[in-house]
Specification:
AraC family transcriptional regulator, alpha+beta, 10-stranded antiparallel β-sheet, 10 strands, Arc Repressor Mutant, subunit A, about 35% helix, single chain, Multidrug-efflux Transporter 1 Regulator Bmrr, Chain A
Length: about 290
């Protein structure tokens, strides 16, 4: 996997002054665009578009500070349609304008080229199962997740527990009081943002009222992984799930003949016993056979 990711980085570095399409970067890694974006983000902590933008602005800063390069020339060279758009992006990253970057003793930020080191992993087994799941319709409350999913999502979950929305959704869907709702990650964007819905499957005889998000899920093949969590002060806590997600992308996918398919990723929560304290989380990721294996 790291060899293929390194190939994609090589491609980016060779084309920073040219138009770059994510499809072409993914092709350098012998991957689909959809799977590559998820894997790159999981391994590096930044999205593909963030990496390209940061590298371009780093090189632009070096040229502005060390040469007589004009702002408009730097803007056009590194893919910006106007000096104004370039200046805005440059100042957001550097904290100074391109003109100010020319001054002596101005501190500038550098985003280095990413390199990958092979680490021996897999010392702990990963239990999983493959499931063919029929399509369904789910509903619940959703929120936009912008940057750090595992900081933003717990805040959202705590809110719907405390304001009674969790119980309201269970009642609407005819589920037992206290039953745990599922989490659905969907509408992934290139900048790493997504929608996140807390809800469950809608029975055929239920009319969903206004104010709720409805999500249609097609027939899918899923790889399913287990994690364990606990309920503390009425809030779901499952820190291990972050490690499960990381290992899925850094260990499981690289060793399997599958890649992530388009569609919602699901976190299913189930109580271990009647105490409603400990629960199991199942991570459901839609997958498909890699093109070379079909």
């Amino acid at each position: 996997m790291f060899k293929l990711l390194s190939q994609s980085i090589d491609y980016v570095e060779q084309h920073l002054h040219l138009p770059i399409e994510i499809e072409d970067i993914a092709r350098a890694a012998m991957s689909s665009k959809y799977h590559f974006q998820r894997m790159f983000h999981a391994v590096t902590g930044v999205t593909v578009t963030q990496y390209v933008r940061n590298r371009r602005l780093t090189l632009a800063a070096q040229e502005l500070a060390g040469t007589n390069c004009k702002v408009i020339d730097a803007a056009l060279k590194y893919g910006y349609e106007s000096p104004a758009a370039f200046t805005k992006a440059f100042q957001r990253m550097q904290g100074v304008t391109p003109l100010e970057a020319r001054k002596m003793n101005v501190k500038l930020k550098a985003f280095p080229r990413i390199s990958f080191q092979i680490q021996v992993r897999g010392e702990t087994e990963m239990n999983y199962r493959m499931v063919e799941e029929q399509g369904s319709t789910v509903c619940g409350k959703s929120v936009d997740i912008h940057k750090d999913a595992y900081k933003e999502i717990p805040v959202f979950v705590e809110q719907i527990w405390k304001d009674g929305t969790h119980d309201q959704i269970n009642e609407l869907l005819g589920r037992p009081a206290g039953a745990l709702l599922y989490g659905y990650h969907f509408d992934f964007a290139e900048d790493g943002s997504r929608r996140y819905l807390m809800g469950a499957e809608v029975p055929d005889d239920i009319q969903v009222p206004d104010g709720f998000t409805v999500l249609h899920i097609p027939d899918q093949t899923y790889a399913v992984f287990d994690s364990h969590g606990t309920m503390t002060d009425g809030v779901e806590i499952d820190l291990s799930i972050m490690d499960v997600w990381r290992r899925i992308y850094t260990e499981w996918f690289p060793s399997m003949s599958f890649e992530q398919a388009e569609g919602a990723c699901i976190e299913k929560y189930v109580w271990v016993d009647d105490r409603q304290q400990d629960f199991i989380t199942e991570v459901w990721i839609p997958v498909r056979k890699k093109a070379d294996d079909i």
